[in-house]
Structures are given as structure tokens and as C-alpha cells.
Amino acid sequence: MTITGLAEPFLRAQLESLGLAVEYVRAEGDTLYRRGDDGRELPVLDLVGGFGATILGHNHPEILALAQELLSARVPVHAQFSLHPYAETVARRLNEILHRDTGDPGPYTAVFANSGAEAVEAAVKHAELDRGLKAAELLARIDEETDRARRAVRDGAVLSAAARRLADGGDFESLAAALTAANRARAEEPPVLLALTGGFHGKLVGSVQLTHNPVVREPFRALAAPCRFVPAEDPAALAAAIAEEHRTALGLTVSDGTVDLAEHRLPRLCALVLEPVQGEGGVRPLTAGYARELQRICAEADCPIVVDEVQSGMGRTGSFLASSAIGLRGDYYVLAKSLGGGLAKAAVMLVHHRRHRPGFELLHSSTFAKDAFSTLIAARTLDLLEADGGARYRQAAERGERILARLEGIRDDFKDVVADVRGRGLMLGLELRDQGDSTSPALRELSRAGVLGYAAAGYLLHAHALRVFPTASATTTLRIEPSVHITDPQIAQAESGLRALCDLLRTQDGDRLLAR
Ligand code: F0G
Questions:
Q1: 325 domain residue, yes or no
Q2: Do 52 and 101 have their domain in common?
Q3: Can you tell me which atom of ligand 1 is nearest the CA of 336?
Q4: Over 90: is that where the pLDDT of 186 sits?
Q5: Whether 343 and 438 share a structural domain
Q6: Nearest residue CA, atom 9 of ligand 1?
Q7: Do 157 and 271 share a domain, yes or no?
Q8: pLDDT attached to residue 5
């Protein structure tokens, strides 16, 4: 057996071939420092920001100071199965913010986790618990209806024609048995999970089923309930999918001495899971019009909505939630990434009291979730975001607009190279045109292999000290997600690097793209 000591040799080889195999040794604000060949630190402007986890920048001084204080004070990280006042503080703070931004007083119950995928799964698990309990409650109600009908038959009531057909010509007890068998079979059908094409919700066994990209999802599709994907921005497709999945359970009514069949909607829809701004799928904001329609369709079908704000939340798009800006209300919200202030691993799912099932926390828990260290850091992160009447949100919007204007300028000057520029606040994407037919063999091959965006990232790193990455499921879109503290000179540096990249693509200079 060979032990290489490498965490993932395959990944290392990929990084090396694309010029991305560098080691970062320090991080501050929007700068990561890498070790140069001569041993000195080289600053790199980080526009990836931990895939959106550093809304306040790397190692924010106040977060860092708090972390050091907590360690010095020997605050217990582990005190499972005791009171967690810090987690309560975060939950209360989040409720205040949600109430203010959505107008919905909730309250939302918070269930903590360690990562985005885990919190998404907690939301889905809760939704499934709720669905299962609702189905059981319905079947119990139907049993009561059956008892009532049984008594009525004893008192002389007769079966309707439809009821007799179901009883296969038999008596009331044959009817009751047929009804129970049919209902149990229908109730045992797997739940329906809905998500949008292009969406990303994590890579764990359950959450990967909701992640649209087949490359990461398909190898694991047999491990958990599959998800039904509907195209974003197409309310009719959502309505059609929901209509197709509609199932009923059969109950009994008694009126005017006749026992008849009654149809009840069987709770089959576990949840619709979506991002208000799709991140990993290419930075694609949902429109307010679509949000309104999907909200109406889901309300009619009693389908809970899980709003995944793992990447778009925590102020990144100019308001605490990206969903509130498009009028979308969630039965569940999921937050992670920047909730940990760029330092801690913290995630939370929030479930509206209308749907909340007490006792869920006993069914779902994790050793590290809601530990004092991460929740105290999350609480301070929320304080920093909320300070000065929400100045950080305005800053995210202002910085974002400034960067967007620069990106739009680039798009206008390089229409032959740039396909689109999109996003909201500090969640922006610049989509390059495909180079599959380039006159440069290097560009052609990179493009056909789906790694043009990564090669562009290698070029920007070495030639312009810029850290940019493509969105993993839409690899020609470069994602730009800096902190609210990005400065004008840093924006200018990003612009000049991106212009140089576009110039190189325009002149089909594949060799320069790969030169190190
Ligand atoms: N949901 C969304 C919207 C995400 O963007 C991510 C991660 C997750 C869930 C999973 O969170 O990694 O903490 O388990 N997105 C990264 C990306 C990986 O590339 O955008 P996790």
C-alpha cells in the first residue's frame, strides 16, 4: 500500500495543471497571502471569499478578538444536553431580523448544524417528519369517519354505488378493508421533493439529490429519495409537476342515510427547495414575479418552501435575506457560510411555528452543532451586520453596484467574449462565451473539457494576483463574491485583470492564458 500523505492526489494534479496549486499562508480582509518562490508572502485579492463565507472578510479583527477571548476564557465548547443560551441569542436575533424583513412574526424555531448541506438536510428531514405526521393524522381521521359510517350502516344506512364498487359488491366491512388497504398503499408512496434546475444545496447523501448537476448527483441517486426538478422561472411547469404528484386518500361521509366516498388530499409534497439567487449554478437571481407565482402555487398545494440562503443570505445581496427582496417567504430558511463570521463552522435551519413539530431536536442532532464557540461568533457576526442601522447591508448593495457597473462596462467593451453579467449585491457572475470553436487549440481544448473558467482563474492568479473561480456547475461563469470591505483600488485591480483576460480571449491567445 502506498501512503502519499496527500489529502486528495487527484485534486492536486488538477490544480497543478490549471496553475491553481498554490498554498495560502495568511488571510486578512479580502486578501489571501501566498508563499512566493523566494519565500516571501505575495498578496492575492480574493474574490471567491470562501465561496461566499466571508461577507465581513477573512479574519475580521472583532471576530478574531472574540475568538481569542473565548479561548482564553475557556468557554466550554462542549456542553451537550444542557441549556444553550448563546444559541438562544442567535435564534432570537434571527427571528427579529426575519420579522423585520418579511413582516411575518413567525416565530421560527432554530435547529443548528455545522455546514450548509447538513442544515438543508435538517430542513428536509423536518419537512418529512411533518408530512408523515400529517398523513398519519389524516389516516386516523379517516378511521374515525369509517367508524361513524359503520355505526350509520348498523342503523340502516346504505352504501352508495361508488362505495359498493370499491367493496367489490360486498358489505360494509369489505368496503372498510378495501379503503384501508388502498389508503395505506397510497400513504406509503415515497415523498415528492421538488427543486429547481441549476440549483445547488450540498453534497451529502440527502442534499446531493437536490443538487441539479448530474455529474455530482447521479452516482449517488440510489442512496436516497430522488428529487423532481422543475425549470426556474416557469410557474406553469411547477404547477404541472405538483398536479401530477397529487394523490388522494379515500374517506367516508354519511348523508341522508347513504354512505359515500370522500376524497382527501394526501400530503405527498415534502418540500420545494430553492435558492433565491442560484449561486453554484451560475449566479442566477430569481425574479419577484416568479417568486409571487411559486408562493401562490405552493400555498394552494400546501407544499412547504425551503429557502436556501446558505450563500445569498447574511447580507450578501444587500439585505439580510435575498428572498425578502423579491417578496418570497419561506416555511424554512437555511443559513450557513457567513453565519460563522468567516471563522467558525456554523449553520442553522429555521422552521416556521406553523409547521414546527416539537421534539424534532431529539430526532436530529449533532455533537458540534450549536456549540458555544460557533454560536457566540455567529451572534457577534449578526451584531456587526446589524450595527449602525444595517449599514453593512447598504455597503453590500453599494459595493455590489459599483462592481456590477465595472462588469457591465467590460461586457459592453467585449461583447464577443463576455456572454452575460448577472447578480445582486456582492453575489455577481461574469459569464464568458464558449471557446469551443476558437482558432487557438489551447482555448478550444480547455473549453471543450469544461475547464476554461479554471484556466482563466489560473491566469488571473499568476498575472494579476486575483483569486476568482468559476461556479462549479456552470464553469464559464466567474463568480465574484468579495466582502463588504472591498475598496475602490481593489475593484480597479479586479477590473483591470478581467479586462486583460477578455483581451487575451479576444485575440485568441491561448498560450498567454496558460503561461506561468
Ligand atoms: N446551499 C447553497 C445555496 C450553497 O451554495 C452551498 C454550498 C450549500 C448549500 C452547501 O453548503 O458546503 O457548507 O455544505 N456552496 C458552495 C459553492 C460549495 O460552490 O457555492 P456546505
A1: yes
A2: no
A3: 13
A4: yes
A5: no
A6: 201
A7: yes
A8: 53
Q: Is residue 69 part of a domain?
A: no
User: Is the pLDDT reported for residue 37 higher than 90?
Assistant: no
Is the same domain home to 217 and 335?
Answer: yes
Pair 194, 162 in one domain: yes
CB of 472 within 6 A of ligand 1: the answer is yes
SS (H, E, C) 223-258: HCCCEEEECCCCHHHHHHHHHHHCCEEEEEEEECCE
Phi then psi dihedrals of residue 228, to 5 deg: -100, 125
Cell for 158? 346504505
DSSP structure class, residue 221 = G
**Percent of the chain as helix, strand, coil, to the nearest 5:** 45, 20, 35
DSSP code for 77: S
For CA atoms 35, 41, 43, 46, the dihedral sign is: positive
Amino acid type, 433: R
Q: Is the pTM value of this prediction over 0.70? A: yes
User: Does residue 10 surpass a pLDDT of 80?
Assistant: no
> What confidence score (pLDDT) does residue 7 get?
64
Q: Which domain holds residue 327?
A: 85-370
* Phi-psi domain of 193 (left: phi exceeds 0; alpha: psi -120 through 50; beta: other): beta
**Residues 487 and 419 both lie in one domain:** yes
Q: Do 207 and 100 belong together in one domain? A: yes
Separation of 225 CA from ligand 1 center, angstroms?
20
121 lines ligand 1 (CB under 6 A): no
Give the integer Cα–Cα distance in Å for 336 and 115.
6
The domain tally of the chain equals 2
Within 367-487, residue ranges assigned H as helices are 372-413, 441-448, 452-464
Nearest atom (ligand 1) to Cα of 472: 19
